[in-house]
Amino acid sequence: MTNTDLVITPTQLALDLQIAAEKEIDGVGMGVLSDGRPFLTVRGLARMCGVDMSLMVRITGEWLDNPPKPRTQKIREMIRSQGADDTIAFFAIEKNGVIHHAVPAHVCMAVLEYYAFEARGDSDHALKSFRILARKGFQDFIYAQVGYNPTGDAGIAWKQFYDRVSLNYHTVPAGYFSVFKELADFFVTLIRAGAKLGDKFVPDISVGQMWAKHWQAENLDVIYGERIKYEHNYPSYFPQAASNPQQPYCYPDDALAEFRKWLREQYIPHRLPNYLNQKTRDGQIPAPEARRAIDALVAAKSIPALKQ
């Protein structure tokens, strides 16, 4: 959820956090930050409280007013009574150039408690939401709703990989192979090593582009037959999904041995390190992840050890 009316202070702009998983259910936006903290969007919190979005924007906008408004003061007192930090109403997280506003659990529960038991007017909606979250636990509820694996980043990477496979395993015509499916072992090796594959780390795009150049440069269609396009889709939570369906090439099965040899002898040892280094320089993947990816492939004997 984004809203230009929300005022963002430097302490609210969390440059070190990312959105690890997110989903909207019945109009309630929710998700999990990269450090494992669950959240609701400002709009999602308003919907769970049964109040208008503009009211929730006013509350967050008034959060640090001095003197505070009575409503905000009461909510902040509830937060402090939990032993939690009452100085930040939400975290501003940048994703794909857009600011998303994530309201942490302790703020959500205090706001819900206020509208369920303190505010005048119809409190049934807020009371029902408060009871659901109190009974199930805020974190457990959000994790379950968005499909977040609390065992860590590897759980997210496995889910993203599984979701992509589920969408595309059946779309390649008989007699052809796709780069994405052929990279399954490659993906598994990286995920097991702790590399976080996701919307910023999609190696099959790089492999597909390099293989296409090799295919054309070597006139392999003369040897193996023409390549054709097929439909490939990204999960809805990937930014690449905005241009679904994709139309990458798939290649004749007769060329499969050629592709595997090229991947093993050309792309992985010579192209992949440059790809990972560029992703690191662009700030799209942290350097430790790039290092883990290379170390995993060295351990799997996919590439020779690189000089430090």
Description:
- By secondary structure, the protein is α+β, with helices and mostly antiparallel strands.
- It folds into 2 domains: 19-146, no CATH class; 153-299, no CATH class.
- It is built from 13 helices and 8 strands.
- It has helices spanning 42-49, 53-61, 70-81, 105-118, 124-136, 138-146, 153-168, 179-182, 184-192, 203-217, 220-224, 256-281, 287-299; strands at 19-25, 28-33, 38-41, 91-95, 98-104, 176-178, 228-229, 249-252.
- A 5-stranded antiparallel beta sheet has the order 1-2-3-5-4. A 3-stranded antiparallel beta sheet has the order 6-8-7.
- Strand 2 and strand 3 form a beta hairpin.
- The longest helix is centred in the C-terminal third of the chain and has 26 residues, at 256-281.
- It is elongated.
- The protein starts with 18 loop residues before the first strand and ends in a 9-residue tail after the last helix.
Summary, kept brief:
The protein has helices at residues 42-49, 53-61, 70-81, 105-118, 124-136, 138-146, 153-168, 179-182, 184-192, 203-217, 220-224, 256-281, 287-299, and strands at residues 19-25, 28-33, 38-41, 91-95, 98-104, 176-178, 228-229, 249-252. By secondary structure, it is an alpha+beta fold.
Question: Keywords for this structure?
Answer:
308 residues; alpha+beta; 2 domains; five-stranded antiparallel beta sheet; 8 strands
